[in-house]
Amino acid sequence: MRNRGVKKQFWFSRDEDYLLKLKSSKAGLNESDYVRSLVVGYEPREKPPIEFYDELKKLRGYGNNLNQIARKANALGFIDEPEYWKNVNAMNDIILGIKKRYLLPKEN
After folding, report:
1. pTM of the entire structure?
2. 17, 23, 49, 87: least surrounded by Cβ within 10 Å?
3. Nearest CA to 65 among 86, 51, 84?
4. CB contact at 8 A, 44 and 105
5. What are 28-76's pLDDT values in tens digits?
6. DSSP helix/strand/coil, 106
7. Looking at the domain assignment, is residue 7 inside a domain?
8. Dihedral angle computed from the Cα positions of residues 65, 70, 71 and 73, in that order, rounded to the nearest 10 degrees
């Protein structure tokens, strides 16, 4: 459901139109979402390369493997739980850092 009841119409030069299309496309946003982000104080970042997503998927896979290993080790009764959670939290921090660097918009 949309909360937007005000329509705005702007005129751009050809160069401005080109730049808006280029920048919104690089960010993976449509033009109106791109402009809305700028208005509320954020500069959308360029969409990361496909390799970024491949690496993120691998990192999540490692996390899933670690979780499965820990469950099995815990069932057998020989796991250092604080060390396990320390590693899981560290890995989650890495994922969050990647997201902040590549995905989340920068504040102006």
Report:
1. 0.59
2. 49
3. 84
4. yes
5. 999 999 999 999 999 898 888 888 888 788 888 888 878 877 888 888 8
6. strand
7. no
8. 130
